[in-house]
Design a protein that fits this description.
18% strand; 140 residues; two-stranded antiparallel ribbon; 5 helices; four-stranded parallel beta sheet
């Protein structure tokens, strides 16, 4: 029996929409990362981008367990000595809630060029509205 390896030209990506309201961040990020990589398809090939597009709505309503809201910190570094800044997850939720989900999903993808290509297929929106109705996204 031969092993089927998908080719870049044969892949037909689908569009999915996920409502992040009251979903736990880590579990949501795993589901998104698997769909972006194509792990949910029988034609999954590790070295080919077989994944689908994912639209996440209501990013500001994502849930966290325990005391992560106050304890988790994101570090930003300007490149200059002593110019690193830390922001709590609570502060990031107010400023850029899209970043929280994007950061979690990026950490669950491989660290290579293919993963950077996969991240371009992730669209995250703060509220319930998104401009991708023409693509007919299916709920995931």
């Amino acid at each position: 029996m031969k092993t089927l390896l998908a080719k870049k030209e044969e892949v037909q990506p689908n569009w999915y929409v996920i409502d992040a309201t009251d979903q736990v961040l880590g579990r949501l990020a795993v589901r998104i990362a698997n769909v972006l990589r194509g792990r949910n398809k029988p034609t999954y090939t590790p070295h080919v981008d077989t994944g689908d597009y994912v639209v996440v709505v209501n990013a500001e309503k994502v849930a966290l367990t325990g005391k992560k809201e106050e304890q988790n910190k994101y570090m930003f570094f300007s490149g200059y000595v002593g110019r690193e800044k830390y922001r709590s997850l609570k502060e990031m939720r107010e400023r850029r809630p899209e970043f929280i989900i994007e950061h979690a999903v990026r950490g669950m993808l491989p660290k290579n060029r293919l993963a950077r290509k996969m991240m371009t297929k992730l669209r995250i929106y703060r509220g319930p509205e998104h401009p991708h109705q023409a693509q007919n996204p299916q709920p995931l």
